[in-house]
Design goal:
Transmembrane segments: 41-61, 73-106, 118-139
Radius of gyration: 37 Å
Helix content: 55-70%
Strand content: 5-15%
Number of helices: 10
Domain Histidine kinase/HSP90-like ATPase: 263-359
Subcellular location: Membrane
Protein name: histidine kinase
Oligomer: single chain
Shape: rod-shaped
GO molecular function, one term: ATP binding
Structural class: alpha+beta
Order of helices and strands: HHHHHHHEHEEHEEHEEE
Length: 364
Amino acid sequence: MTAALQAHNAADMIKAATDPSGPARSSRWIEQLPLARDRPVFGVVVMLAIVTIAWMLRALADPLLPPGFPYVTFFPAVIITSFLFGVRLGSAAAVICGMLAWYYFIPPARGFSLTRGAGFALAFYVFVVVTDLALVHWMQSANRQLAREREVNRSLADTRELLFRELQHRVSNNLQVAASLLTMQKRQLSSDKDARAALDEAGGRLALIGSISRQLYDPSGAAQPLLTFLEQLCRDVLQASGRSDVVLDVAGDEQLRLQPDAAVPTALIVAEAMANALEHGLAHGRAGRIAVTFGLVAGGDLEVRVQDDGHGLSSGFRLEDSESLGLRIATMLARGQGGSFRLAADHGTTAILALPRHLVVSGA
């Protein structure tokens, strides 16, 4: 039963090596060679079977072959054995095959006569099999070294990801602590409403940066899916506002991804646009809808729109003259990324963030 199971496993590995599903799978299988390193008896049995098959095939083909081809089936047997089970069993197969060929197929047959022709044929055989065994040994040594290096690289990658996530966790916690300190400081300013409001806004922004930094960055430095990023951000802002009478829609090109360096500034700008829509456009408990859309526009720039169906802008409103700290911060952050931020009246209010093309990646 055990031998049958081992043979079945070996057959499965051979099948995997010939499976055209991809070079990566085949290379990983090759790195496991030689087989049966911990099962020497199984390797010897399979080696003898391969040699026996090679001898039988050579005997069957003997009437069809002209003189001078004593090793035509033995060379493949030696190569297959050494490839699958290592140079040690390959060497044993080479000796057995050489002896069989010398006895049966090198004239004069049925004997171990060392004539000049037999000596030349045996020398040629030794040269070929030694070369083959050396090449197989070097290949398998290189594969083992490659497997060890891949394992080291995998371990280093796991360690890097662990350290990265720990760093992100600590940075986020520190930001949350800073936000809590501002909240505590606010309690000391019970008589100054403007100062309390300013501390509230600062604490909220720090808390927002802390929360998004946990999920925005990837240890590999990959760009972030913009749809997922904006949808999660906007829903967090809406949930934090405690508003259940506002419907949120987020839509855009699913293939667009945001570069890591642009994540936090963009999050702050969009969060400010959402907060402005909730606080002003849909103020005083007015139910409504906020639609967040994004996509590439003419010229290749990215445009993010946050549109509400609320009260709209007051007459004569100019963003440049606004005293809102949040809007000034949004404008400054947009310019810092080489983009722009503006408000427009369109059946309510639409906040428009334009970012340069190099901050986004198109494609999965």
